[in-house]
Amino acid sequence: MQQTRDVAREIEILTAAANKALQEGKGSQAITYWGQILLLNPNHIPTLAALGKYSLANNDNNSACKAFERVCQIDGRDPQQWISLAIAYRKLNNIDGESAAIQQALVADPMDMLALIMKADLHTRLGETHQAALTYGSVVKVAPPIERVHPSLRPSIEFAMQYKANYDQEHGKFLDDFLATAYQEVHGEQLDRFRDSVDIMVGRKKRYDSQSLLYHYPSLAPVEFFDHERFPWLAEIENGTEQILTEFMHVLGEEEGFTPYLEYSPGVPMGQLAELNNSPDWSAYHLYKDGVVQEANAAKCPNTMRLLSLAPQPIQLGKTPSALFSLLKPKTHIRPHTGASNVRLLTHIPLIIPEHCGFRVGNQTKPWIPGQALVFDDTIEHEAWNNSDQLRVVMIFDIWHPDLSEAERHMITAMSKAELAFKERHSL
Length: 428
Prior knowledge:
By secondary structure, the chain is an alpha+beta fold. It has 15 helices and 11 strands.
């Protein structure tokens, strides 16, 4: 035991001496100290790594390769060990060795960004365009925002992004040309989903899935905007738009009952919506709120309430139904966000829509047109903006997702009662 401690102490002294020699520019002396350490412990990884690094810096690539081979043979759990070996192999023009070392680095950590960059670069040098594009795509996925990338790696990340974008553009054009005949063979058929699948594959569109914040119901397809044919009751509400607008203008003139759309206590995480929390720039006039009729407001909008009764509004105690007038002031942007649950959809009845307003759900951006309803899944990322100099007003209410059976709706309502009871128990 004492001998082991003595050896460890001697290695510590020799390591300090080697480091001091390096600082003083005495590389040959540092090599001598490292040699003495390896005589004491041939498997001393820090010394082998230091020797390899020094050899690489001084273009002694054979010595570097031997040192890093030994490190990887002894340990090999750190991807950086294999990356160093790959760099040595590359300097020796040993393609097979470089490839194998990079692969071992990715076995150690499949998400290692530097190893992925080196793999993509190797594919590029070998003319393997498809494999390079796939690997550059992986680089882009694992890379943090470019401003957080170390300056030495930024050019590599930017190159990866451009390479993948160029490849996707070429890929997309090729598919468009190749599929032109097939499209003609089924001309007139509904192919929006297929076209979206191609656009997502070649990077022209992003993939948006349901991201329910509170309660997610599995196997409900994430549809951005729903066809009106799914909702036979909707036409009568659309036909009543003028009645709804008249009642809104009346309550707007009274200037009572309007509250900020978002009313969260300070300290609650809000993400990108924080700037609109408790803000008059995005306000609401509630007819139903958290499942409860707002009697004073509803009494002023009898025609609107009658029309709302036609909709299959979801019953979830303490949550739904919800119905309100949403007011967005000029130059206001509701940034991308997602809703609470995919068991219900949101319906927009546009009332006052100036120019330069917009609404996006997932990959689709649609205009609000007064009297033309939009029904969408708000658990898919969505955003809205009013770039005009006038007020924008939309009536919003929720409905059951049409793919839920009556039995499922019954159980979701029952669960909301149970959930409320549980919360009450723990609030005593």
